[in-house]
Amino acid sequence: MPSTIKVLHQQAQQALNQGLYQQAHQHLLLILQQDKYFADAYFLLAIIASVHHNLAKAIELIKQANALAPNNLEYLSQLAKHHALDNNHVEALYFAEIAAKLIAKSTVQSSLTLDTLGVTYSQIGLHEKAVQLFKKSVAINDKNPTYFFNLGASLKFIGDFDGARAAYEKTILMAPNYYKAHSALTGLGGISKECNHISQLEQLFKQTKHADDRLHIGHALAREYESLAEFDKAFHYLQAAKKFKLEKLKYSIDEDKSLFESLARHFKNSKASSFQGFNTKEAIFVVGMPRSGTTLVERIISQHSDVTSAGELQHFGLLVKKMTKSTSNRVIDAETVAATKAINFKELGKAYIDSTRAITGKTAKFVDKMPLNVLYVGFILQALPKAKIICLDRNPLDTIVSNFRQLFSVNQSYYNYAYDLQTTTEFYLLFKQLAELWLALFPENFYLINYEKLVNDPIKEAQQLIEFCDLSWQEDCINIHQNLAPVATASALQVRSPINNKSVGNWKKYDAYLDGVKKILTTNLET
Predict the structure, then answer these.
(1) What angle do CA 280, 324, 86 make, to 5 degrees?
(2) What is the pTM for the complete model shown?
């Protein structure tokens, strides 16, 4: 390697590590002017593209690096990870398996590469494989808090709560300001007057300046105070954290109202029998408001021997967005709905089924449990006319309070409504109207199941549910606590227990703060 290229390479790496991306970019272009076959220049350019959220460019550049330097484990693992981040799970799994086989043969292993590959498997939903890689990563390097945090997340998803707790505690021990680890740790429960983190969390809450950090600590405090039955303090921290976040957003419930109205207009006179989509009976969708029992229903169905759980997939919505070529900044909005007129829905259906094949295809049916796929019901049935869609209907106050209490992904505009009780209530009413429309339009494909009836009479309700899915009844379906499949949702703890009605009426803990909610519900549900 010419000395000038070596120096430029070192300078590019240093600039990249310091976040000086423009400077790093200039060094890398100078390298390629001298040697267009220098693989790591393409790879480092890919990392710059990734930092700036240009996944397509990053993937293209990593592929170039990999072509010039085949079997480079760092390149392969990053290529797999970026495909996963781009929701191309099939390609992600392909490159991940190549990398995993090479790692197994390698005598020298990198903690970073192992962690990267673990993140890939976790994104795909293969959390058992992720755990094994994360364990190897922390065994090599036990000084990186992110490696332990990633291990903790996958351990939680597979039901190893003690292991997850230890991993999160290790993360916090190394990095007390690792805010996500605090909210993750308190989410595992086990809080008592003798064992809690309230004093530490309150100190952190005072220190937080960034809205997302405050959300994590505020939700952690709310969970701990709730565990101690101090609901006023729990609500205080919830409201303070969410209000601070909401002030940073340019959100109005009018955006969601426009979306729901456009969906109603678009499908007002539709009939599922007229849809000519992709011919398969594989897909079962479980939808509804988040925190309404969707995971419980998914566990019942996926406990059946003919069903695979595919987890919460964003694939369908992203494919709709891609095929409409809509340029708006939301995945689904009125503009995107209007642009669906140009979609070939048979191609959409096939593309969706193909996109699930990293996990599905080994059983007759699979379940996609993305709750807000309720927005896509009409499009799903255009693309997959034989799909079955189960929608949860839960007590409105429990649904609204549970959504307000939940820490959703801070980067997804889907959940902006949940930063305020009033907008959460208004969103619930929009959802309710849409669910009733889907039921009226598509009664053969759309099934509304009541959460309270399900938990109070699980055998009867589960039998009807399984029949709707065109499956034969199996007694194991109600034994959800025996379902060993990973659960990557906020319900990971609850669904490891037998079906119960302990969550019914949880809203009463916050009754003192619900006068406005009740007024809106009373006015709208009576009209």
Answers:
(1) 75
(2) 0.92
